[in-house]
């Protein structure tokens, strides 16, 4: 089984991936942030490095999906390949930070990859307001994220909502993050686990 967590920067994907992996004894695939050779450069000069960064993420995510399929195990994945192609790359293109030539090339690569893969069995979408995202980004204190602008997060949130509104790749569970603290509060985590249990049970009926 393939479970995936989607959500904007700072919505809590990695934290929830870790906690659910521990609770359910699932294998976890994380976003390759530490080993990404483009991330620091991207936040310093988005226009120069946007295409390189997005291709790196696309390749990394496709590799994860291949690994999940071949493993025969249940995996939980921190962010999906669809977010790269439906949210981040189009947003960079719309902001003038990725050229039309690079964007068209990128989308051709994604569409080819997409023809070889299935969506996750369950997609968990973490919906968070921009103030909540900012609060959580500041709390984790990654240097390269200090320069993320509010309008950038707002644009991403709008694209997430549009994508989720037309998502058809499989079952989806939406979690409203603003009123939850699943990183510190066991009761809040328990509420999420109850909802996931109900969705997973539904998959096997």
Structural features, described:
The chain has 205 residues and is α/β, with parallel strands linked by helices. It has a single domain, classed as P-loop containing nucleotide triphosphate hydrolases (Rossmann fold, 3-Layer(aba) Sandwich), CATH 3.40.50. It contains 8 helices and 5 strands; from the N terminus they run βαβααβααβααβα. It has helices spanning 13-24, 39-44, 46-71, 81-94, 100-114, 130-140, 150-165, 186-203, and strands spanning 2-7, 27-29, 75-78, 122-127, 171-176. A 5-stranded parallel sheet has the order 2-3-1-4-5, sandwiched between helices. Helix 3 (46-71) runs antiparallel to helix 4 and helix 4 (81-94) packs antiparallel against helix 5. 31% of the residues are buried.
Rg: 17 Å
For the record, the CATH class is: Alpha Beta
Fourth-tier CATH superfamily name: P-loop containing nucleotide triphosphate hydrolases
- What structural class do helix, strand and pairing data support? alpha/beta
Overall form: globular
First-residue to last-residue Cα separation: 15 Å
- Profile the largest sheet: 5 strands, parallel
Order of helices and strands: EHEHHEHHEHHEH
Question: How many structural domains in the coordinates?
Answer: 1
Q: How many distinct beta strands?
A: 5
Helix fraction, binned, reads: 55-70%
Strands across the major sheet, in which order? 2-3-1-4-5
CATH architecture: 3-Layer(aba) Sandwich
CATH fold-level assignment = Rossmann fold
- Low confidence ranges: none
Strand portion, in percent?
A: 5-15%
If helices are DSSP runs of H or I spanning 4 or more residues, what is the number of helices? 8
């Amino acid at each position: 089984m393939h479970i995936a967590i989607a959500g904007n920067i700072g919505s809590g994907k990695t934290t929830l991936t870790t906690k659910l992996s521990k609770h359910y004894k699932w294998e976890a695939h994380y976003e390759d942030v530490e080993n990404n050779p483009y991330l620091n450069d991207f936040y310093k000069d988005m226009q120069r490095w946007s295409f390189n960064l997005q291709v790196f993420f696309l390749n990394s995510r496709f590799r994860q999906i291949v690994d999940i399929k071949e493993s025969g195990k249940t995996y939980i994945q921190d962010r999906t390949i669809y977010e790269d192609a439906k949210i981040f790359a189009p947003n960079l293109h719309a902001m003038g930070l990725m050229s039309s030539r690079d964007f068209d090339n990128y989308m051709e690569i994604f569409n080819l990859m997409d023809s070889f893969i299935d969506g996750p069995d369950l997609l968990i979408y973490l919906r968070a307001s921009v103030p909540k995202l900012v609060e959580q980004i500041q709390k984790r204190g990654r240097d390269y994220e200090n320069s993320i602008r509010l309008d950038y997060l707002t644009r991403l949130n709008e694209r997430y909502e549009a994508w989720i509104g037309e998502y058809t790749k499989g079952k989806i569970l939406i979690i409203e993050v603003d009123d939850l603290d699943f990183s510190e509060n066991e009761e809040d985590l328990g509420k999420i686990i109850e909802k996931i249990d109900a969705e997973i049970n539904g998959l096997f009926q």
